[in-house]
Amino acid sequence: MAEGRNVLDVLTERGFVAQATDTEELRKYLEKPVSCYIGFDPTADSLHIGSLVPIMSLVHMQRHGHRPIVLVGGGTGLVGDPSGKTEMRQLLSVQRIRKNLQALKAQLSGFLDFSDGKALLVNNADWLVDLRYIEFLRDIGRHFSVNRMLAAESYRQRLETGLNFIEFNYMLLQAYDFHYLAGNYDCLLQMGGNDQWGNIVAGIELIRRKSGGNAHAITFPLITTASGAKMGKTASGAVWLSEDRTSPFDFFQYWVNTDDRDVMRFLKLYSFLPMAEIRQVENLEGQELNACKTILAYEATAITHGLAKAREAHEAAARVFGRRNLPPDLLPSSTIPREAARDSVGIPATEVDVLRLESGIPVFEIFVEVGLCGSKSAARRLIQQGGAYVNEERVPDIDFLIEPRHLTPDGILLRAGKKKIHRVTVKD
After folding, report:
1. Fewer beta carbons within 10 angstroms: which end of the chain, N or C?
2. Residue 320 C-beta-side C-alpha neighbours within 13 Å
3. Residue 222 in contact with residue 195, Cβ under 8 Å?
């Protein structure tokens, strides 16, 4: 597993954990590869920034060798979750839910690797829609105490404004989801927002009663900014993960405008930068702290929209607002372009013949020639692992050729991993 650490310790250190079931049992459970799941309701054709914490938690799980299961609530979306709501959600049509489902599948695939079963995406409509009501009441409903359900925070809040019967069933359906995934996918860990604690615990209890299994839960804090505002809310509305709803530039600018008090906390949650570097932010102020906001914006945008869009947003912001100085030793693991890396000062340079460049130079060959890799096989491995860059663009495959189109006024910038950089210039 990544870093040789238990993922529970990583999630806790980064601020993802609000509540959890018995932590020692959970830590032991996570010592081997397991499945975990989080549910997402298809209420729109895109998720928003408020969904990034659960998404990032699943990415951390996958990076540590576990299998994330993304449950998209095609069935529960027909009912509506009362949690955190003061009034009943608008019920969506089957057609609208189906359209939203397809959009969310594509969006989540940008964060998680679904190839070869490394992650799964399931739709609870597959098992909820065809449930027989009387059988469901006899087999599942009898395990639920109405008194305990009414004591749950999500229901108590709604009792003041009115809770209808269809919403009252939501806890049973979510608990049944957990029970179904436990039995069919060997998934015994559910994660979600802290307002889901009652629903998740209901699922744990149902699994225990029905099969005697021991299930686990992790809930995340409901993220607000230091000013008390709900995360992802702006004067112009929600900040969406879809670039059709919120452009990468506006997404980038949302993070640049982070309150000084939130920078360190948000770097923990919304980037993969090492904690040893993030801790240094606590002692920064002024221009250096502002530079960290730019790094945060770049990392969050790259995770959500890809490196190319993050670079475009960074460059567009520089044209509009001016370029911020980003010292190379400030959070050095970030892949944000730093002006020092684009200058010739301090970066080794190698000349190549212009005719050779016009013919196309295999990228793995040039990485060996300039000393970024010790052999062609090492260069190929670097490329296959996604660690080779030309002008801050990731090299897509080992057959990639460096050509005149890659030449900039400062030459061609090659990078291996995070910190090994070399500049190629051309001689006539």
Report:
1. C
2. 10
3. yes
Contact 47, 14 (CB under 8 A): no
The structure tokens listed for 44 are 């729109």
Q: Could you tell me if 106 and 171 lie in one domain?
A: yes
Say if CB 83 and CB 89 are below 8 A apart. Answer: no
The highest-confidence range among 26-40, 279-293, 352-366, by mean pLDDT, is: 26-40
Of the candidate ranges 5-9, 35-39, 422-426, the one whose mean pLDDT is the lowest: 422-426
**How is residue 41 written in tokens?**
């309701």
Q: What pLDDT, in 10s, does the model give residues 259-269?
A: 999 999 999 99
Among 298, 314, 334, the domain boundary falls at 334
What are the φ and ψ backbone dihedral angles of 223, each rounded to 5 degrees?
A: -75, 125
Distance CA 389, CA 391 (A): 6
Length of the chain, please? 428
Mean pLDDT of the chain: 86
Under DSSP, the state recorded for 230 is B
What tokens were used for 411? 């030459």
Rounded CA-CA distance 288/309 in Å is 24
Which of 38-42, 78-82, 246-250, 315-319 is least confident? 78-82
Task: Return the pLDDT at 86.
Answer: 43
248 sits in which H/E element: helix 248-256
Q: Which two tokens stand for residue 236?
A: 């112009």
More confident residue, 185 or 320: 185
Query: Is residue 289 in some structural domain?
Result: yes
- 158/85 Cα distance (integer angstroms): 7
Q: Give the list of residues 6+ apart from residue 16 with CB closer than 8 angstroms, or none.
A: 53, 56, 57, 60, 218, 220, 221, 269
Residue 403: strand, helix, or coil: coil
Q: What is the pTM of this model?
A: 0.74
CATH number at residue 408: 3.10.290.10
DSSP string, 86-98: SSPPPPPPHHHHH
The two three-digit tokens of residue 229, written as one number: 């505002």
Q: What is the pLDDT of residue 345?
A: 43
Contact predicate 86/27, CB 8 Å: no
Q: Domain range holding 24?
A: 2-220
